[in-house]
Amino acid sequence: MLGTGHALALRGLTKRYGSFTAVDSVSLKVERGEFLTLLGPSGSGKTTILMCIAGFVAPTEGAVLLDGQDITPLPPERRDFGMVFQGYALFPHMTVAENVAFPLRVRKLGAADRDAKVRAALDLVQLSGFAERLPRQLSGGQQQRVALARALVFDPALLLLDEPLSALDKKLRAELQEELKVLHRRVGRTFVNVTHDQEEALSLSDRVAILNHGKLVQEGAPAHLYEHPRTRFVADFLGKSNFLHGEVRESVPGGFVIGAGPTRILQAVAENHRPAHGSRVLLSLRPEKIALLAEEDAADNVVMGRIAAWSYLGAGYTLVVETPDFGALRVALPTWQAPIAPSEGLAVRLGWSSTASVPVVEDAA
Ligand code: ATP
């Protein structure tokens, strides 16, 4: 079952329903053996893209290419892709082994080959001892693993996953996420996954493509996207962020200074990304990049404020700190780093480095 996987490319993929554009000129490459996740809010076009890749939806314009070959006109059965959906879609009257064997029967494989492949697929998802059970005798996580085995058993060119974990409870979802990651490495196939769960996208994928209103807004490795969001939407959708508005007052080596009221904020920037003097800029600042400073502590940026609200989350605290120039700032502190017990109304000094925040573009309305 080991293989090198296939490369997928979308070229100007567009799907219109009447005057409504569900997918708007999406171009994207998925490398051989890569785990790519399409991430976006509800209605952003993720499933439509997956269905165009699978061949169930015909794009209005654009093309789907597999290893450079245009497969847009091919019907789903000629594409030979494996699919796993949110609802496991197992045949309830068939045993686990019969469910997994089904795609091989359709492909008219001989019994000996079929049995060997079913065994290997069940081994792969660690369900060897469950071959004779019926789906209703399995937990949700086990059922989803059977669905994975069934999708992989015929050695598909691509595995397409549509919200495969969203029907499971939180703990089971986390477990299956880990398993899916290991499985991906083991089979060395190209996986394309759809989710609206940002944590799942970050933890599972080699690369994430973020969609909004049918458009691809940014793609990249999870850490790159999280650390370098290009727009406010990406910063806000992928994790939590504070947004600081200000006007560029001064250029300094390696950065610039913005002012918001009397407060000056130092922002690091690459030389070729310097904004014009006097222009309005927007900075994204992650809550976990803000520290609570003691009186003697220094930082590139120091802002005074008062705790307006706080919550204890076990591993850490979340504070909402009201500041005169930037409004409410959300601060996330690991419990062991919290120098004080938070209380409402408490005056605090917030500090962050000039490299902690990133300039982002305000999305078009
Ligand atoms: P979700 O996370 O809710 O599944 P999604 O990002 O997968 O959302 P899609 O299912 O791809 O979104 O839908 C994108 C848009 O296209 C939605 O506004 C949806 O209503 C619309 N749409 C999808 N299928 C059709 C159809 N057959 N006819 C008309 N509009 C459609």
Automatic annotation (TrEMBL):
One of the protein's GO biological processes: putrescine transport
InterPro entries reported in the protein's UniProt record: AAA+_ATPase, ABC_SmlMolc_Importer, ABC_transporter-like_ATP-bd, ABC_transporter-like_CS, Mo/tungstate-bd_C_term_dom, P-loop_NTPase, PotA-like, Transp-assoc_OB_typ2
Family: Belongs to the ABC transporter superfamily. Spermidine/putrescine importer (TC 3.A.1.11.1) family.
Listed SUPFAM superfamilies: MOP-like, P-loop containing nucleoside triphosphate hydrolases
A single GO molecular function term of this UniProt record: ABC-type polyamine transporter activity
EC number: 7.6.2.11
Chain segments annotated as coiled-coil in the UniProt record: none
SMART domains recorded: AAA
EC class name: translocase
Catalyzed reactions: ATP + H2O + polyamine-[polyamine-binding protein]Side 1 = ADP + phosphate + polyamineSide 2 + [polyamine-binding protein]Side 1
Gene, per the UniProt record: potA
Subunit annotation: The complex is composed of two ATP-binding proteins (PotA), two transmembrane proteins (PotB and PotC) and a solute-binding protein (PotD).
Protein name in UniProt: Spermidine/putrescine import ATP-binding protein PotA
Organism this protein belongs to: Falsiroseomonas stagni DSM 19981
Keyword tags: ATP-binding, Cell membrane, Membrane, Nucleotide-binding, Translocase, Transport
Entry GO terms, CC: ATP-binding cassette (ABC) transporter complex
Pfam families membership: ABC_tran (PF00005), TOBE_2 (PF08402)
Summary of the function given for this chain in its UniProt record: Part of the ABC transporter complex PotABCD involved in spermidine/putrescine import. Responsible for energy coupling to the transport system.
NCBIfam families cross-referenced by the UniProt entry: potA
